[in-house]
Amino acid sequence: MVKKYNLKGPKIVVEPPGPKSKKALARKEKCVTSGIRIGLPAALELAEGPFMKDVDGNVYLDFTVGIGVHNCGHRPPEMVKACQDQLDKFIHICFMVSPYESYLKLAEELSKICPGKMTKSIFLNSGSEAIENALKIARAYTKKKWIVSYRTSFHGRTFMDISLTGKEKPYREGFGPLVPNVQHVEFAYCYRCPLKLEYPSCKLACADTIRSIMEKPPLQGDVCALVGEPVQGEGGFINPPPGYWEKMRKICDDNGVLFIDDEVQTGFGRTGKMFAIEHWKCDPDMLITGKGLSLGMPLGGVTGKEEVMSAPGPASLGGTFGGNPVCCAGAIESIKLTKKALPNTKMIHNVEKKRLNEWKEQYEVVGDVRGLGAMMGMELVKTKASKEPIADVTRNIQLNCFKKGLYILTAGQFGNVIRLHPPLVIKQDLLEKGLDIIESALVEETKKAGP
Ligand SMILES: Cc1ncc(COP(=O)(O)O)c(C=O)c1O
């Protein structure tokens, strides 16, 4: 039996954070590292579908979905049931000890849904760990040294991951020395083009710059992999223009470089396709999964081409919990649910694109509106002409939405991007309700900030 709560919202009964949430936050200060910052100050006790309920009785509409995880809403019954069924059989064995059905079946499913010919997988506990493993595999396969990644990227929290991630604060600062032989390059961030050019007359010159970096010493002939998010998530929902990933694929091929496609945030329908890279004609050598892979059960994966995935030596990869049976059982059901949810991303995209573009016309602070499928965001600036980021106002909008019963996230190099992660199964009226809240918060907070 899967428990039902029939949560309805958004409904604010006590101004958040209410007294019970405040108590929880005070406890957090005493018993949890200061390295973890709480984005929105309510302690939660229940989540169901598009809603979350806090300990004071407030119900929020959730446009964060656990940072891009619950694409099919919280606790879809089919997925909970699949996990329960597996719990009734066994919780953990360790795939390094003996194989089991849910791991094998999930690997087979991924080879069916991943683009190109990627036939082998390994499962880990998180997206971060999956990135680590992909790079170990890439080194084993190519025997080359350098790894190229994007300055505005985010790839997780381990030492390898923060070495790939370009943003110093808060991810890297104080943690050095980091992993050597990582070369950062600029992404196709058209709104703030690093080359001050415009698409399409630029002819994707940013990609040519990467080619020249790869083809000159010290990288020349010694680049193992390019790691990239097809659409950057934490970096600010940045989707490169048409032709970009095709051009990068060619550059990788010309230089014997593997392309590692980090789909931890973009994967499983978020951009309107199962994987975001499918918006371009570019087959990766390895594809990284996490987050929506198992709709909330901790799981990450690397799926790759046969020859690449066969490079590591016996027993060189693994981990006690990687590919936990319950998580894999949940993931198999998640994939089924995601396939069903995919068509609804069209409605989400159309509604969001229309509203956000209207705001761009109407409000001086909306500098850029961008995104694919249900991965839309807007960049907030002092004026359209100056493009000066307004992180404080962006944060205030987030808090204002929270007080009105809507959870949203911010992102971007300057913290000035509002990103929308509604569940892919959301109904139009609820989506509109969430957007109404954002618009009223936008108007109120920009008025408060003054001209
Ligand atoms: C693109 C991308 N890669 C990797 C990660 C790391 O995944 P995890 O937090 O599961 O370790 C994230 C997390 O936000 C991500 O967005």
Cofactors and ligands present?
pyridoxal-5'-phosphate
- pLDDT average, as an integer? 97
Low-confidence stretches: none
Q: Give the SSE order as H and E letters.
A: HEEEHHHEHEHHEHEHEEEHHHEEHEEEH
End-to-end C-alpha gap: 55 Å
User: What portion of the residues fall into strands of 2 or more residues?
Assistant: 15-25%
How many helices? The count is 14
Structural class: alpha/beta
Strand ordering within the main sheet: 4-10-9-8-7-5-6
Topology of helices and strands:
Layout: H1 19-31, E1 44-48, E2 51-54, E3 59-62, H2 65-68, H3 77-89, H4 101-113, E4 120-124, H5 127-142, E5 146-150, H6 159-164, H7 168-172, E6 182-185, H8 205-214, E7 223-228, H9 244-254, E8 258-262, E9 286-289, E10 300-304, H10 306-309, H11 325-341, H12 344-362, E11 366-372, E12 375-380, H13 391-404, E13 406-407, E14 409-411, E15 417-420, H14 428-449
Parallel strand pairs: 3-13, 5-6, 5-7, 7-8, 8-9
Antiparallel strand pairs: 1-2, 2-3, 4-10, 9-10, 11-12, 12-15, 14-15
Pyridoxal-5'-phosphate is lined by residues 67, 126-128, 131, 154-156, 229, 233-234, 262, 264-265, 290, 300.
Descriptive notes:
- With 451 residues, the chain is of the alpha/beta class.
- It folds into two domains: 164 residues, Aspartate Aminotransferase, domain 1 (Alpha-Beta Complex), CATH 3.90.1150.10; 264 residues, Type I PLP-dependent aspartate aminotransferase-like (Major domain) (Aspartate Aminotransferase, domain 2, 3-Layer(aba) Sandwich), CATH 3.40.640.10.
- The protein has a seven-stranded mixed β-sheet, sandwiched between helices. Strands 1-2-3-13 form a four-stranded mixed β-sheet. A four-stranded antiparallel β-sheet has the order 11-12-15-14, covered by helices on one side.
- Strand 2 and strand 3 form a beta hairpin.
- Helix 4 packs parallel to helix 11.
- It is globular, with a radius of gyration of 22 Å.
- It starts with 18 loop residues before the first helix and ends with a helix.
- Pyridoxal-5'-phosphate binds next to helix 5.
- Pyridoxal-5'-phosphate (PLP) binds next to helix 5.
